Amino acid sequence: MIETERLPDAPRSFMNRFPALRSRDYRLLWLGQGVSGIGSFMQVAALNWQLYLLTGSALSLGMIGLFRVIPIVLLSLIGGAVADAWDRRKVMMVTQTVLMLNALALGLLTVTHHISAPIIYLLTVVGGAAMAFDNPSRQSLIPRLVPREDLASALSLNSIVFRTSTIAGPVLAGLLIARGGIPITYFLNAASFVAVFVALVMMRPTPPTLSESGERSQVNLAALKEGLLFVMSTPLLVWTLWLDFFATFFSSASSLLPIFAKDILHVGPRGYGVLGAADAIGALLVGLWMSVAKPMHKQGRVVIWAVIVYGAATIVFGASRSFALSLLALAVVGGADAISTILRQTIRQLMTPDRLRGRMTSVNMIFFMGGPQLGEFETGVAANLLGTPGAVILGGVACLATVAWVAAKGTVLREYEFDAEAKIP
Questions:
Q1: Tens of pLDDT along 376-392?
Q2: Of 216 and 339, the one with more pLDDT
Q3: What is the pLDDT at residue 313?
Q4: 241 within domain boundaries
Q5: What is the rounded distance in angstroms from the CA atom of residue 386 to the CA atom of residue 404?
Q6: CA–CA dist 42, 157 (Å, integer)
Q7: For residues 207 and 1, is the Cβ–Cβ distance under 8 A?
Q8: What is the mean pLDDT of residues 101-119?
Q9: Which of 57, 133, 195, 229 is least surrounded, with the fewest CB atoms within 10 Å of its CB?
Q10: Distance CA 392, CA 315 (A)
C-alpha cells in the first residue's frame, strides 16, 4: 500500500474529527471532486429541466436514465480491468477530459439552438461511457490513499462532498434556469473539471498492485472473469449488490422531480432546485454525523434498516401535496441512503484485495448505477400508466418488499460486522 503523508502542523482537533484528510493525496482528490461535483450536478439538473421543456414527457425523462446505463453495463467491467492494470490517476485524467468536452458540447449546442432530445441522449451515452471507466478507478483509488482505520472516514467525507454537490448544484442550476441561463450551467461544469485536473497532477503516481506471483493485471477476458468470479463467490458482496440494485430500481424518483415541481407542487424552477437539493441535505447531515461518530456495530443490520426507512420515505414523498412535507420526505430519503451507501461501500472495499478493487467496483457499478438509471426508465413508464405520484408510491412499496426478502434470506449480510483494526487485504 502506498504510504500516506500526514500533516504534522494541521489543527489537531479538526484532523481528529476528519482523520482521512491527514492523507495528502486523498485531501487533494477530495477537494478536486468537491469543486467538480457541484458543476456536474448543475448539469444533471439543467439537463432534466431542458429535456422536459423540449418534450413535455415523463417517459423522455425516464429514457435519459436508460441511455446513461447502457454504456455502464456494456463497458464497466472493462473499465474495472483497466483500473486494476493501469495507474488509476492517469485513467481519471482521460475520463475527466471526456466529461469536460461533453459539457462543452452541451453548452455550445444549446447556445446555437441545435440541441434536441436525440442529441441529449447521444451525449448522455458518451458521458455514461466515460463514467464506466472513471468510477472504478476513482473508487478503487481511495483505499490506496488512506490507512484502513481511516477508510470509513474517507468514504463518509466522500459522501459529504457528493451530497454538498447535490445540494449546491441543483440550487444553482435552478437560479440560473429561472434567469434563462441553461447554457451557462454546462459551461460552468466544463470549467469545474480544472480543479480535478490540478489535483490529479499534484498527486503521486498510483502504479497497479501486483499479484502474489509478481504479475501485473491485464485487460483481457481472463481478468474480467477473475473479477466476476471473486464477486459472485463472495456471498456478502452478492447480497449488498442485490440490495443496491432493487432498492434503487424501485425507488428512483429523481428524474420525475421536474413534474412534481411544475405540475404537482406548482413551485417552478426555483422550487425544483430546492427539491433536487432536499435529499442531499439529509444525506449531508448524516454524512457529517457518521464522519465524527463512533463506529457503528452490526453494520449489516443497520444497512437493512436504513433501506427500510428509504422505502417508507419514498412512499410519503409520492403521496405528499405539501411542499414542506415533500422536502422533509426527500431529506429522510437522502439520510437513509447515505447510511446504507457508506456502510455498503466500506464493506466492499474491506472485503476486496487491492489488485481486484477496480474489477469489484465495476461489478458494483453495474448494480449501484444500473439500479437507479434503469429505475428512472421504469418510473417514467409507470408514471405514464399510473400517474407520477402513483408510480413513486408503488416504487416505495416494491422497495420495502425487496428489503424484506433480503433481510429474510441474506443472513450473511444481516449478521455482518466488520473489524476496523484488521489489515486491509
A1: 777 778 887 888 888 88
A2: 339
A3: 94
A4: yes
A5: 25
A6: 20
A7: no
A8: 94
A9: 229
A10: 7
Kindly give, in sequence order, each residue whose CB lies less than 8 Å from that of residue 140, ignoring residues fewer than 6 positions away. Answer: 80, 83, 84, 88, 354, 357, 358, 360, 361
Residue type, 195: A
The DSSP H or E segment spanning 283 is helix 268-292
Unique residue bearing C-alpha cell 405539501: 322
Write the DSSP string, 295-338.
Answer: PPSSHHHHHHHHHHHHHHHHHHHHH---HHHHHHHHHHHHHHHH
Closest C-alpha among 131, 69, 140, 73 to residue 98: 131
Rounded distance between C-alpha atoms, residue 358 and residue 206, angstroms = 13
Residue 9 vs residues 15, 22, 78, 134, 290: alpha-carbon distances, Å: 10, 10, 42, 33, 25
Domain total of the chain: 1
Could you tell me which of 324, 362, 140 has the C-alpha nearest to residue 231? Answer: 362
Domain residue limits at 99:
19-207+217-414
Establish if 212 belongs to a structural domain.
no
Query: Rounded distance, CA 397 to CA 312, Å?
Result: 8
Give the type of residue at 62: G
Cα 379 to Cα 337: distance, rounded to the nearest angstrom: 19
Phi, psi of 259 (to 5 degrees): -70, -45
Q: Is residue 6 part of a domain?
A: no
Domain CATH number, residue 356:
1.20.1250.20
Question: Which residue's C-alpha cell is 426508465?
Answer: 377
Q: Could you give the C-alpha distances from 275 to 179, 260, 364, 387, in angstroms and in order?
A: 18, 9, 28, 19
Q: What's the CA gap between 374 and 357, in Å, rounded? A: 24
Min mean pLDDT across 77-91, 132-146, 357-371, 399-413 is at 357-371
